[in-house]
Amino acid sequence: MKLLLSLFCLLFAGICFAQDPVPASFTSRDGTVYTGVTDVKVTPNGVTVTHEAGISRVGFYNLTDEQIAQYGLSQETAAAHTASEKEKARQAQAIQQKVTLEREQARNIEELKKKYAFQASGSVFQVVPGAGILFKGYKEEAYFATEQREDGSLRNQTSDPRAYKSMVSVKVQRTRRIPIGDNDMNLAFLECTTDELSDNDGVNGTLYPCGTHSYTTTIGALKTIPKFTTSLETFLRYRQSKK
Q1: How many structural domains are present in the chain?
Q2: Are residues 25 and 127 in the same domain?
C-alpha cells in the first residue's frame, strides 16, 4: 500500500513539474503589468494573457528576452505570421471592396434602366446593313385622366332610383403612343442586328437612348435624328463616354 502511494505521489509530482507554472502576474517589455493571471497561451507572434481585468494580446516585440525564450518564440516565426495575417486582411479587404463596387454598379445600372429604358414598337423605314435601321417607332406612355362614373355608394342605402344616376369624378390610368422621332416623319435610328430585317417589318422591344445619328437623304440633305440601341452594354458605354 505504501509502495502504491509512493508511486502515485511521484507520478503526480512529475505531471506538475512537466507543466509550465502560470505566473501570478505578467509584465511585458513596455512595463505593463497584468495581475491575477490565470492563463498564458502562446501564439506564433506573441502570447494571450488571461488576467483579472480580461484578456490581453502581447505581441512578440513587447515580450522580454526571458519570455521569448520561455515560450519558445522566434523573431522569424513572428515576422512570417504577422506578414501572413496582414496579407489575409488585405485580401479580405480587397474582396469586400470588390463586392461593394459590384453592388454599387448593379444599383447604378438598375437606376439608369429605370430612368431611360422604355418599350417601343414600330416598323422598319429603311435597313442600314450591318449598322441598324431607320425606325418609325412609338413608346407607350402612362398618364392619368379624369372621367365621370355612376356613384354606386347609395345603392344599398336608398330605394330612390335617382340616386343610382349620381355621377362622380374618378381618376383612371391610361396609355398613349408617343413618337420617338423628332421630325415630321417620326424617324429615329435604331442600332440593332439587321439579320432577316426588311423594309416595313414590325419591330418591338426595349430601347435605350444613345445620342444622335446623322444620315444623308436621297436628295442629298443631311439629317440628324435620335439614336437608340437594343443593347444594354452599348447604352452603358455611351453613358460612360459622356462623363
Answers
A1: 2
A2: no
